[in-house]
Amino acid sequence: MSATLAPAGPSVVAGLPTPAQLRAVYPVGPQQQAEIARHRRAIVDVLDGTDDRLLVVVGPCSVHDTSAGLHYARQLADVAAELGDDLLIVLRTYLEKPRTTVGWKGLLVDPYLDDTQDLCAGLRLGREFLCQAADLGLPLAYEFVEPMFAPYLADLVSWAAIGARTVASQPHRQLASALPMPVGMKNTTSGDVRAAAEAVHAAAVAHVYAGLTLDGHPAVLHSAGNRDCHVVLRGGPTPNYDAVSVASALAILWDAGLPARLMVDASHGNSGKDHRRQPLVVADLAAQLAAGERGLVGVMVESFLGEGRQEIDSTPLRYGVSVTDGCLGWTATRDALDTLAGAVRQRRRASAALPPSPVAGQPAGLAGRS
């Protein structure tokens, strides 16, 4: 009987630049660094309830065309300024696409959409895009799928996400504990909110783990813990955006000694993966806000210039239309943002006569947890 040979290890096709090398080519200047720090602080203030605006993370499911992405960003920047008294709008600049099985993994991995998977070019194009988007003055949101990519991009990000497929992953929780910005932890694809709450707890404490320095050297890394993490409800086999689901998730957080604050994703399981249902989800969330719900601190919307989605091998590709999840078009996006802003104003009026609430604050019980 012949012995079974172990499969060969991965072949090295090309070396990557180090994070430090890429940052040197596409640097973040002192003024931009200060602005990103202000954005991060503003988001924390919304999460903590000291700022009564609503955090809204909006933009393409995954950026595949940086020109269209910047076109969208310029339009969003104008709306963000207009609605800035009520909404803290953050631009989705996702460059990685998590996959349950196989498929296009995002601009960082396959920037030319042709399966050549030129990661070197993807990292260059991705960081250049983030620098250009940050120049428009918007806070940037990013989902970290491959932890190794984080040092290449994290200095440009004001709000981060850990996705439904990785929220239970120890490396991703360790990464979140070290990231210098608030991080949203999505419930799992099965709809499990407790796993996301456990991720919030895990990321709040210090960790020691193996990783790479900015110069690309293997090292033992120490994180300080990130107290600005929170749960994102994204639905599962059934939606979880309704008032009963929101109350249930808030109760899970309180029981765990965690800040009772939530963001709700209007897409994915909450829309049944039908972009046309996102406005219905937004309308329900707006009603909860207008009724005075203060544990609901954020909403996420998938949106692009054009409505819907297209196959990645479409010829020609339609400009500004997603090649991954279906998105709202620009007109419907603007309507959704106006709806949310109006709901925030109603909540503000309804809350004016009420005493301060600790709902979005930091329960003392977290400090002693390990």
TrEMBL record:
Which pathway does the UniProt entry assign to this protein?
Metabolic intermediate biosynthesis; chorismate biosynthesis; chorismate from D-erythrose 4-phosphate and phosphoenolpyruvate: step 1/7
Q: What is its EC number?
A: 2.5.1.54
Q: GO molecular-function annotation terms?
A: 3-deoxy-7-phosphoheptulonate synthase activity
InterPro entries given for it? Aldolase_TIM (IPR013785), DAHP1/KDSA (IPR006218), DAHP_synth_1 (IPR006219)
User: Which keywords does UniProt give here?
Assistant: Amino-acid biosynthesis, Aromatic amino acid biosynthesis, Transferase
Which domain of life does the protein's organism represent?
A: Bacteria
- Which reactions appear under catalytic activity for this entry? D-erythrose 4-phosphate + phosphoenolpyruvate + H2O = 7-phospho-2-dehydro-3-deoxy-D-arabino-heptonate + phosphate
Query: Domain named DAHP synthetase I/KDSA: which ranges?
Result: 38-335
What start-end ranges are recorded for coiled-coil regions in this protein?
A: none
**Which SUPFAM superfamilies does the UniProt record give?**
Aldolase
What Gene3D superfamilies does this protein map onto? Aldolase class I
UniProt key word Repressor: no
Briefly state the protein's biological role.
Answer: Stereospecific condensation of phosphoenolpyruvate (PEP) and D-erythrose-4-phosphate (E4P) giving rise to 3-deoxy-D-arabino-heptulosonate-7-phosphate (DAHP).
What NCBIfam families is this protein classified in?
A: aroFGH (TIGR00034), PRK12755.1 (NF009395)
Family affiliation:
Belongs to the class-I DAHP synthase family.
Query: Protein name, please?
Result: Phospho-2-dehydro-3-deoxyheptonate aldolase
Taxonomic lineage is: Bacteria, Bacillati, Actinomycetota, Actinomycetes, Micromonosporales
